[in-house]
Every structure is written in C-alpha cells, then in structure tokens.
User: What shape does this take?
Amino acid sequence: MNQHVLHDRALTLPAVDPLTLIDDPAGTESIDAGVLLDLYRRLVLGRRFNQQATALTKQGRLAVYPSTTGQEACEVGAVMALEDEDWLFPTYRDTLAVVMRGVDPAEVLTLLRGDWHHGWDPHAHRVAPLATPLATQTVHAAGLARAAQLRGDSLAVLAMIGDGATSEGDFHEALNFAAVGRSPVVFFVQNNGYAISVPIGKQTAAPTLAHKAIGYGMPGVRVDGNDVAAVYQAVGAAADRARAGGGPTLVEALTYRVDAHTNADDATRYRDAEEVEAWLRRDPVVRMEKHLRARGLLDEATAEEFRAGAERAAGELRARLSTDPRPNPDPLSLFDDVYARPTSQLLEQRALLERELAAEKRAAREAIA
Ligand SMILES: Cc1ncc(C[n+]2csc(CCOP(=O)(O)OP(=O)(O)O)c2C)c(N)n1
Assistant: This one.
C-alpha cells in the first residue's frame, strides 16, 4: 500500500521556557557588539516614540494610539532581524516596527491621525499597511510569500500579530497555507497577555501559542519578548530558514503591554497594579541597559548620546504633527482603492454616503440663510 508521508521532517514540541539571552552576561556573545548597541539605541528611541505619540493623543494631534510601551523589544528585535529584500506585515499596534523599518514616523502615524487611510508607499519600503481588522495581514503575508516563492525571489516575510488575533480564522488559513506551500513566512505573535480585556487563558486551551505550530507542520518557538537580543536571534534564525527554503515558523514572544489597549481604554478595570508592577521589573529597555553595562559595552557618554538622539527625534515628530498641513481628504475617496472593480454593495454604500454628504451641505446652507 502506498504510504503517504505527511512530513519530511520530525517536529518537536516547543520548549515552554522561552529563549532568553540578556539575563546572563555571556548570553549575547554570539551577536556582534555593534548590533547589540544599535538594538539598545533603538529601544531608547522606541520608548521615547511611544511616550511622544501618547502625548500627541492628549493634545488632540493624534486621534488614537495603541502604545507598545513595554513591548519595544519585540518591535525592534523582530524588524532588525530582517534584510532589505524582506517584507513586513504589521497590525495597528506595530507603528514602532514600521518606524524601525525606516518609514518616516509622521507618515507612519497618518492613519492614526485620521488624515488618510494609509501613509506610505508599501512597495518603496516593503511594508504593508497597518491592518486594523484582526489577522487579515497574516493571509496577505502568506500570499505575498507564496508569490515570491513562485517567482523564485529569495526573501522572508514577517507577519506580526497579537495573541487575541490568533483566534481568528484568517490566522488558521494563513498558517495552513504557508505550511503546505513551505512558504517563507515568520509568524511573530506578540503575546502581551490580553486582547483588550480578554486574558490569554480565555483565548486558547493550547499549552502555549507556539504549540499551535505543530498542528500545521511548522516549528514553533517561544522567546522572551522583553529581551531584544533573544527576539533578534529567534526571528533572525526563522527568517534565515525561510529564505533558505525551509518554510514558515511560528515565533511566540512573551511580553506585556504596560499602557492601556489604546488611549481610549481603562486597563485598571481588568488587571491589577501588582501584575503591572511585576512586568515593569522586566522592562525591556532597563534590562538591555543592565546587560550592556555588565558586559562593558555601554558607557555613560554613549547612553547620554542615545537619550539625546531620542529626544531630538521626538521633538521633530511633535513639530511635524503640529505644523504639517492636514490633507483633509474627500470622504468619498474611502471607496476608491478597495477593489479594481467595485462590488454592487460598495457602490450602494458610496451612493448612500454621497446623499448624506449632500444633505449635510444643504442643511448647513439653510442654517446660514
Ligand atoms: C476582525 C476584528 N474583530 C474585532 C476587532 C476589534 N478589536 C480590535 S483590537 C482587539 C483585540 C486584539 O488583541 P490582540 O490580538 O491580543 O492584540 P493587542 O491589541 O493586544 O496587541 C479587538 C477584538 C477587530 N479590529 N477586528
């Protein structure tokens, strides 16, 4: 009888203990010292970016901001593991990851400012738009990776996703599709413990999110998401494997969102201060700084230079968002770039909005007359 072989390689269950490097002074010796310093510089920049963006919501310059304070090691480490030819597929929370990819921070915040539906040219930076519908970016990432594979392009695709979004059907379809085609995707889950107010325990019955990989036929890895060097190493290894034709990997990073879900959320309603305190003691910026100092790689002058650089970048962003002319787009342009040939439902919705806008204009004219 013909024996069908499901796998050509045995997959082992992921270790529950996450990979961590920076708690041990010798832990990062395999990573170049210049890279380690650059990772730290970017953590400092990232923390300041989060603080500045949050302040801009209070000043009414930004409509909404999903902060990654506490998650900077994930945002920085994962993106810095990419090569120029690779692609990034972020979610709404991953603004910092997009900045780290080299996109102008003011453009990155365009959507969150409410100016326009998107802010940069995805092809120029190899960065897809921030996806607000949960997990849709994972199918787009799997599709692009498959297309690149069929064209013979050597690249890796990084799809970033939250723990809550792993309950979406799209996540299942993306992992299944990528694994069957052995497509070059790294699915990077930032497990920050909550989907708004829903804790991870109510999200999945799996022992860990990394375990889910085994069911699809790809390796699953757990990493300390507050250790920038460990994230850099784990995502880098998965991306190298993807580029070399080894197929997709699921990387679960354990981290914590220190701020509320967005500035519109009150996190004290669903989590207690002790929990937040415990995670603050594992702050990714402080931990990396300690590690570098213990290894003698960071002196005070360099630390000060990094802080000053972050302060300058924050000042520039504040000035840009306060003075840049706002585009004020036509509301009907909302429908322009959805489909090449719009569906009948979309045309109906467009006509409805057109009538409502005309009625508003008439009412305003009558009020003046
Ligand atoms: C398809 C879909 N359903 C519901 C929502 C509303 N929603 C926005 S964020 C969110 C929680 C997501 O949590 P998680 O994936 O853990 O990401 P985190 O915000 O923690 O980074 C929900 C339910 C949405 N944006 N899209």
In short: The radius of gyration is 22 Å. The pocket of thiamine diphosphate is lined by residues 93, 132-134, 162-165, 192, 194-196, 257, 261 (CB under 6 Å). The chain is about 45% helix and 10% strand.
